[in-house]
Amino acid sequence: MNIKLHTPKSLKTGSGMSSMKQFLLSLLATTVSIALTFGTAAIIDYNKKQGEKREIVMMVMYDMCNSLNLTEKVDSSILQSMEIQRQIAEAPANFDALKFKMAQFTSTTMETYTETTERIFSSSIETINTVGNVLFTENVADFYQKRKFYKTTVCDSLLNVIIRKNALSTLKGALDVDYSLYAMVSRGVLNDMKRLYAQSKQMMEVTDEEIDAYRKQRNQIDNSMSEKEAVDSVLNNINQLQEKIEESKAKLK
C-alpha cells in the first residue's frame, strides 16, 4: 500500500520563517509605538517641570535682586546721614538747612521689602521639590533670614532711635544719634546677602541679563494690571456718581 504524505502549508519551506518575521515585525512596531507614546509623554512632563522650575528660580532671583537694591539704598543713606551729621557738628548754624537731608534714611526705609515671594517659596514643599536643589533652597532661606535681620536690627531699630531722639527736629537729637554701629552692621549683613545672591545665581546658572529680561517682563505685566485697575476705578466712580444722580433726581419727583 502506498501512503502519500501531505506537508501542512504552515510547514512548507519558507512559510514558517515568513510568519515568524511578520510576528517579530509586528512585535517591534508595537514596542516602538509604546515607547514613543510613553517617551513623548515623559519628555513633555520633563519639559513642563523644567519650565516650572525655571520660573520659580527666576521669581526668587528677581526678588533677591530687588531686596539687595533696597538694602544697598539703606546702607548708602546711613553713610549719607553720618556725613550730614559731621557737617552739622562742624557748623551747628547750618542745622536747619541740613536736617531735611537727614530724612533720606527715613524715606528710604519706607520702601519696605516685599515678602510675597518669600512666603510662596518657604511655605510650599511642592515648590521646593520642583526646584530640586537643596543647596539653593538653603541659600535662599539664609538670604531671607539675613533680610529679616537687617530690617529689624538696622532699619526698624535706627528709625526708632531717630524718632525717639527727635533727630530731624532738634540739634541735640541730630548729634546724639550714633550711626556708626548701624553702619558697620549694615555693611556686614549686606555683604553676606551679596554672597548668598552670587552663589544662588551660580548654582542655578542664572545671568544678570536673564534677570533684567525677567524684570522687564514683570514690569510690563505689573503696568498692564495697574492700568486696568485704574480704568476699573474710574468706571466704578462714574457708576457711583450716576447712581447718586439718579437717586437725587428720584427725590425731586
How would you summarize the topology of this molecule?
Layout: H1 15-90, H2 95-98, H3 103-109, H4 116-123, H5 125-131, H6 134-164, H7 171-176, H8 179-204, H9 208-252
Helix pairs in contact: 1-3, 1-6, 1-8, 1-9, 6-8
User: Poorly predicted ranges (pLDDT <50, ≥5 residues)?
Assistant: 3-8, 40-47
The largest β sheet comes out as:
none
Fraction of residues in β-strands: under 5%
Work out the helix count: 9
Gap from first CA to last CA: 128 Å
Structural class designation: mainly alpha
Element-by-element helix/strand order = HHHHHHHHH
Q: What number is the mean pLDDT?
A: 80
Number of strands: 0
Global shape:
flat
Instruction: Using the CA coordinates, give the radius of gyration.
Output: 35 Å
Query: Can you give the helix content as a percent range?
Result: over 70%
Overview of the structural elements:
By secondary structure, the protein is mainly alpha-helical. The chain is built from nine helices and no strands. It has helices spanning 15-90, 95-98, 103-109, 116-123, 125-131, 134-164, 171-176, 179-204, 208-252. The protein is flat and about 110 Å long.
Record keyword descriptors for this entry.
253 residues, mainly alpha, 9 helices, disordered N terminus
Brief sketch in words of this structure:
By secondary structure, the chain is mainly α.
